[in-house]
Structure to design on (452 residues):
């Protein structure tokens, strides 16, 4: 959304360019094996642009709350994730108070509850991770290449990091609450006065907890400086507040396929945190035979209603609970990790050169031509901006771990993540990991190709 708003400002001053020419790559497109796990994800992304104080997402019970419909009554226990992605804007422009994002945890039980913070990161667009132009493919061993806060957060979590802002553990006394996050989204001094914050946390609780994400403007000290809201002020907003406005566009019901599709923004608990895929020739096979020379096969990634690339597979996480005016599924699977294993096998009698690539074809539900459609020159819109980890054995048999940062425009074929020179009969396990980043637009594909 932040990149979208900034893009609008650029578009107003840029003359329209003619659409690029399409190129069809004849390749088979298959559903991705595996499925989402059952780890619930607290997904706070609506309203994305927050102009008014209020409740963004609450899984608390509605009992004793002033606006019961603002609470979804969904307790977490065991492993769960918290994802939040929101934008603040000075409205009117002279109102440059910082908007604070608060995430509160509550223990409704009679015993202490321990919450382990396994990994966690939260970044602003300005100054932490500005949207900058980056090359399509950059090796990034240290995690220093990013554009946008969502991109940087996903890079940290992919590397197993917990930012210093977050404690390793929180102990919630019986019937008590604590703030898990209480951080500003400042706009003062920015042109335009617009900023965003992305957050992802992986948590584990040994008892029931409720959580909520809330938006409140900074409080003012006697000397005019800003201060963060207190736990008591957040609690009052949770108990007495209503859903933050203005609301995002109401999504089109999934069954209404004849209308222009509005996916909507996500606010609720999504069913799933990661997708593990063991990509082989058949469900009972243990190997993935490489394509014939000059051929390629692709596996769909992050497919969604209206964009299955001919596979009929919808990977969007189901919503376990949601607000009625928000997305029916977690389209795009923001923050969900894909772990893809490809046990490649050269079953021919001669050496073969094999490439594994991530690609962003033109979105289709049913393929209108026998293969994927790309543009001969990349379109203007960035559709994927994120980090990918590749683990494999190189041509000398040495294990390698490589991190690359990708930027792919709409309809961009992409460069190979890895190229292997496989001897006759050779077997190589290639493992590809990434977290689907905010501000990306699905679907993508993972492609295995053999050079002619």
């Amino acid at each position: 959304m932040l990149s979208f708003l900034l893009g609008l400002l650029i578009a107003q001053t840029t003359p329209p360019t003619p659409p690029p020419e399409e190129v069809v790559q004849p390749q088979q497109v298959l559903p991705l094996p595996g499925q989402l796990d059952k780890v619930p994800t607290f997904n706070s992304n609506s309203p994305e642009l927050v102009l008014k104080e209020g409740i963004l997402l609450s899984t608390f019970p509605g009992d004793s709350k002033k606006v019961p419909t603002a609470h979804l009554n969904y307790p977490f226990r065991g492993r769960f994730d918290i994802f939040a992605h929101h934008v603040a804007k000075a409205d009117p422009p002279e109102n440059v108070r910082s908007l604070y994002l608060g995430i509160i945890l509550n223990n409704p039980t009679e015993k202490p509850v321990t919450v382990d913070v396994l990994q966690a990161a939260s970044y602003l667009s300005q100054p932490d991770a500005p949207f900058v132009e980056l090359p399509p493919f950059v090796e990034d061993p240290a995690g220093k290449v990013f554009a946008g806060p969502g991109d940087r957060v996903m890079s940290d979590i992919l590397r197993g990091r917990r930012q210093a802002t977050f404690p390793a553990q929180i102990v919630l006394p019986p019937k008590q609450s604590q703030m898990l996050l209480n951080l500003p989204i400042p706009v003062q001094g920015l042109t335009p006065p617009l900023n965003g914050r992305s957050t992802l946390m992986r948590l584990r609780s040994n008892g029931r907890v409720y959580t909520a994400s809330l938006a409140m403007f900074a409080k003012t000290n006697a000397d005019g400086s800003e201060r963060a809201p207190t736990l008591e002020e957040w609690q009052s907003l949770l108990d007495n507040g209503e859903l933050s406005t203005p609301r995002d566009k109401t999504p089109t019901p999934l069954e209404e396929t004849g209308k222009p599709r509005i996916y909507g923004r996500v606010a609720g608990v999504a069913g799933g945190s990661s997708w593990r895929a063991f990509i082989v020739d058949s469900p009972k096979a243990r190997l993935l035979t490489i394509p014939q020379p000059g051929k390629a096969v692709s596996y769909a990634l992050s497919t969604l209603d209206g964009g299955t690339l001919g596979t009929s597979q919808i990977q969007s996480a189901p919503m376990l609970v949601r607000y009625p005016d928000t997305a029916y599924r977690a389209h795009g699977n923001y923050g969900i990790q894909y772990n893809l294993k490809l046990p490649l096998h050269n079953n021919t009698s001669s050496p073969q050169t094999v490439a594994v690539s991530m690609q962003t074809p033109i979105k289709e539900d049913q393929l209108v031509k026998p293969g994927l459609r790309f543009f001969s020159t990349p379109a203007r819109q960035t559709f994927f901006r994120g980090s990918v980890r590749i683990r494999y054995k190189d041509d000398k048999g040495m294990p390698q771990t490589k991190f690359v940062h990708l930027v792919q425009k709409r309809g961009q074929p992409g460069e190979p993540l890895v190229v292997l020179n496989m001897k006759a009969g050779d077997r190589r396990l290639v493992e590809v990991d990434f977290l689907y980043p905010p501000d990306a637009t699905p679907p993508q594909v993972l492609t295995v190709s053999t050079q002619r």
